[in-house]
Write a structure and sequence with these properties.
about 210 residues; alpha/beta; about 30% helix; about 25% strand; disordered N terminus
Length: about 210
């Protein structure tokens, strides 16, 4: 009987000695093939098409965290508080919004987006210049990223239950006074392709 307390103490000490769990790593999306197709449609249809240049794509999706003292609600920050993309079928839009917000805490590994796409280039999120970056930082970024026109970061993708509608929040950065954030709504044109049907400008950094 005297050995029982000793065993309990030993077990307790062993548990305390275990290393602390590591921070969660980005995980693949449960809808990865569809989400990858959406990310490609956004990056290529909007940014490659408008610039005619290579576009860098951050390999981890944005999450819903906010480091500011006061933050608006996530739906407002990501531009989905209003169903601006609902064209006669608000149930589809509500589905997509709910799914997007439900996925907001997940950091998704989206390194597959540039694979096989010659005008898309992988970029580590930590390498993407912040909004306040100066010209020198952008010069260094472009030198290391095939003279990319800019870098795009995207939230997880929200899908309607029917799978016909998708919505995402996008942060485009292209220089010290160049870039914007937008909400993008898409519709499925086949099992593997998407078309952009509407966009909502949330903020803009104008060129001087």
């Amino acid at each position: 009987m005297r050995s029982v307390p000793r065993l309990l103490i030993a077990a307790f000490l062993a548990a305390c000695a275990r290393p602390a769990p590591e921070a969660p790593v980005p995980t693949p999306s449960s809808t990865a093939p569809r989400a990858i197709a959406v990310y490609r449609a956004i990056a290529e249809s909007i940014y490659v098409r408008s610039t005619g240049r290579i576009v860098a794509v951050a390999t981890v999706s944005l999450d819903g965290g906010c480091s500011e003292m006061e933050c608006a609600g996530l739906a407002s920050r990501w531009g989905v508080d209003q169903l601006w993309w609902a064209h006669g079928d608000s149930a589809e839009a509500r589905d997509a919004r709910s799914d997007l917000l439900a996925r907001s805490a997940a950091a998704l590994d989206i390194r597959a987006v540039p694979i096989g796409r010659p005008m898309l280039l992988e970029a580590d999120p930590g390498d993407v210049p912040p909004p306040e970056a100066d010209g020198q930082e952008w010069s260094r970024f472009r030198a290391a990223h095939a003279d990319a026109a800019g870098a795009v970061r995207m939230s997880p993708v929200g899908f309607s239950r029917s799978g016909r509608t998708a919505v995402a929040f996008v942060d485009w950065r292209c220089g010290p006074s160049c870039g914007h954030t937008v909400g993008v709504a898409l519709t499925a044109t086949s099992d593997t392709s998407w078309a952009i049907v509407d966009m909502l400008l949330m903020s803009s950094r104008q060129r001087r």
